[in-house]
Amino acid sequence: MTQSTRETERKYEVPASGGFPRLPGLTGAGRGTSLVDAGTHDLDAVYYDTADLRLARSSATLRRRTGGSDAGWHLKLPLGDDTREEIRTPLQEEVPDRFRELTLSRTRGARLEPVVRIRSRRTVRDLVDADGARVAEIVLDRVEADSLRPEGGHSAWTELEVELVEDGDPALLERVDKALGKEGFTRVDTPSKLSRALTETAPKTRTSPEPEPDVAEGSAGAHVLAYVAEQVRTIVELDPAVRRGLPDSVHRMRVACRRLRSCLRSYRSLLDREVTDPVRAELQWLGGELGVERDQEVLLERLREGVDDLPPELVLGPVSARLQAWDAERSSEARERSLAALSSPRYVALLKALNRLTTRPPLRPKASRKPSKALPRAILKEYDRLAGRVEGARRQAAGPERDAGLHHARKGAKRLRYAAEAAGPALGKPAERLAEQVKAVQKALGDHHDSVVARETLRRQAVAAHAAGEPGFTWGLLYGREQAAAADRERELPELWERASRSGLRKSLGV
Q: Does residue 197 contact residue 118 with C-beta atoms inside 8 Å?
């Protein structure tokens, strides 16, 4: 059994006096807060990582801790700013299998082993408000750290840690920060005890860090690689959330796969296709496996909203119950498919390939060119492809062939949008404006495609309802509404496409 909490905290160097802060700026009558003694604890934690510290390099920590009120295994994942998520599971001797899964995107299958032991003598004060409610915890830790790697050393220090209660007011941290500054406490940059311990107890012979990409600063290749690195980081960081079924995580991970695939395709003049084409194929596989679960989420939400929008007197028969039963079967299968993909050797191989993309990027000579020369040409090529698809689809008669053509155009709109997004930091407003205009085209085409998929599902549900002797009226009504919604999107398309048209595009992009 695992538990999850969010922690928002800051760490401080303790002045020479080494005492606990008095915090008079917070405990005065005007603030309504006070400090309450919460005891002293002896904590003993062994931290685990790969031999080359892949968890630490991604700001994640895994430890087995005894002592205190929360003994057990703790996995901490960064959430941004001063906040991390801590996932806990009860004590056992070996690394829990669940934590091996949740760290896989960072370890890439490498073995987890003990790297450092940290023992702390912890003095705790609770900061409580005027009603006696706990709003923060302030702890003074006297730390002893010992490396568990060959030729590692020893270190000792004292630090102060201020942690808000979950969902606490971040503004309180600022008040505490100001009060501590007046007493000589200074904020430290190290994100955790582990990072400091690894630095101060590092073995004399250190593990070689991952190589830095050899790319000219400010070049077209540098801008493309920055976008690539952002998408790779997103995939890695979302992996634990997808495994735990957190809201919107599958969608966001799938979008990162699409963005990365599109970038590798659009900017293949700058990247070696012998390296990137196999990666694109594997990203397509992963996106497809995740897509089953995500598409089911989207479709169910659309159908439920359609039912909820109808007046009660137009909902005839067990419509909601039939939808629920249909979703229960399909969602379970889709979820199993996503988890199977993330547990496969194929996925681990993809993670390794993504890491190589960022550490040993396969740049071609053109990557050294100026962004203003190389990036617009790639964007315009994607525009030309999309223009052909849009016009081709619009020439088709209404029906399945036009639907397929518009879906094909939707995929092209995504590629153009993502190519413009990747170039945005280099090309500025022209690329950003194009990305926004194409996003509107993509959204309309996406809604049209969702309507096509929804109509087929509604038809099948109507057939099943009829076979069961249930009324088919509501299913037919929903089908008609979806048909009308698709027609509305088709009528909007010419105007949306005109806004993103080629008029002035070359000039605005400097080509």
A: yes
Phi, psi dihedral angles at 124 (to 5 degrees)? -115, 135
List the one residue out of 302, 500, 487 whose CA is nearest residue 413: 500
From 260, 333, 286, select the one nearest 105 (Cα to Cα). 286
Which position has the token pair 């012998």?
Answer: 274
Asked if residue 46 lies in contact with residue 66, where contact means CB atoms within 8 angstroms, the answer is no
- Residue pointed to by tokens 């105007």: 495
Give the best-scoring range by mean pLDDT among 101-110, 327-336, 420-429: 101-110
Taking residue 207's Cβ as centre, other Cβ atoms within 10 Å add up to 12
Burial class (CB in 10 A: 0-12, 13-18, 19+), 345: exposed
Four-residue CA torsion sign, 300, 303, 305, 308: negative
What are the two backbone dihedrals, phi and then psi, of residue 153, each rounded to the nearest 5 degrees? -115, -160
Query: Contact at 8 Å (CB) between 127 and 136?
Result: yes
Strands 113-128 and 61-66: unpaired
| pLDDT of the residue at 29 | 40
Are 110 and 50 within 8 A, CB to CB?
Answer: yes
CB of 250 closer than 8 Å to CB of 262 = no
CB 338 within 8 A of CB 293: yes
pTM: 0.89
- Neighbouring CB atoms inside 10 A of 420's CB total 29
Q: Alpha-carbon distance 258 to 411, whole Å?
A: 10
Q: Which pLDDT band, with edges at 50, 70 and 90, does 30 fall under?
A: very low
C-alpha span between 307 and 141 (Å, rounded): 57
Q: Which of 194, 139, 165 is nearest to 20 (CA)?
A: 139
> Nearest-CA neighbor of 292 among 331, 253, 259?
331
**Helix, strand, or coil here: 435?**
helix
**Burial label, 452 (beta-carbon count in 10 A; 0-12, 13-18, 19+):** middle
The span from the CA of 134 to the CA of 111, in Å, is 40
**Cβ distance 494 to 336 under 8 Å?**
no
